[in-house]
Recover the amino acids of this structure.
């Protein structure tokens, strides 16, 4: 039992190290947003309240907790999709680890995660809450476009994450674990900066759609660039 626990300790230590790296990057991003005034601490009655605060103000305590579960499910499916591609590559499954496969399955995981989110969210809000939220949102066309843009962002991000993990496994030798930690720090820093900028553009009283769209486009381009760069390092 002692030997088996020692064998399992290293993989779990790497997992915890990656989690800590992501948490630290998130904390740095929050500190930057706080210093720049991009985080809102206004009461809902204040003027010029950011859009996300206004929308979330309609949530009851139970609805908020339900949305936390929906978000956790979405993140779980997204993360599992990226890890699954790396596992298939490590097992030598034909086609796994190719940029095209990472890209397409990244999109598939993103789409499924959003489907799961919508399935859960459809039972959270009452008709009154949906009506109140709808009055604070853009029209249906704009919402569909926003969903497509977000799916593109998430799909390319998951594709990049999948390919980076495959590259770490491919080029690692005996250092695959620490390569993953380093990749989480390096690529995570890039994603953190872009996420902070995109969130800052969205979370305003009157979001500039051109700025938001431009940042989402930059996000997707950078994600694809990371995917292709990692593909060059994947044997």
């Amino acid at each position: 039992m002692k030997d088996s626990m020692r064998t399992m300790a290293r993989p779990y230590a790497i997992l915890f190290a990656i989690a800590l790296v992501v948490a630290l990057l998130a904390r740095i991003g929050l500190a930057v947003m706080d210093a720049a005034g991009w985080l809102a601490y206004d009461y809902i009655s204040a003027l010029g309240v950011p859009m996300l605060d206004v929308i979330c103000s309609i949530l009851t305590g139970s609805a908020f907790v339900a949305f936390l579960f929906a978000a956790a499910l979405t993140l779980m499916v997204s993360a599992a999709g990226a890890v699954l591609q790396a596992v298939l590559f490590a097992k030598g499954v034909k086609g796994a680890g190719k940029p095209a496969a990472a890209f397409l399955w990244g999109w598939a995981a993103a789409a499924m995660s959003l489907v799961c989110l919508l399935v859960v969210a459809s039972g959270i809000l009452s008709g009154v809450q949906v009506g109140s939220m709808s009055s604070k949102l853009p029209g249906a066309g704009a919402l569909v476009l926003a969903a497509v843009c977000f799916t593109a962002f998430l799909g390319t991000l998951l594709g990049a994450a999948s390919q980076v993990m495959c590259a770490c496994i491919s080029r690692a030798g005996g250092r695959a674990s620490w390569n993953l930690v380093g990749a989480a720090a390096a690529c995570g820093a890039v994603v953190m900066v872009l996420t902070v900028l995109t969130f800052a553009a969205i979370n305003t009283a009157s979001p500039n759609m051109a700025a938001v769209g431009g940042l989402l486009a930059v996000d997707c381009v950078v994600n694809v660039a990371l995917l292709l760069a990692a593909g060059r390092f994947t044997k």
User: Anything to note?
Assistant: The mean pLDDT is 85. The helical segments are 2-36, 51-56, 61-90, 99-121, 127-134, 140-170, 176-202, 209-232. The chain has eight helices and no strands.
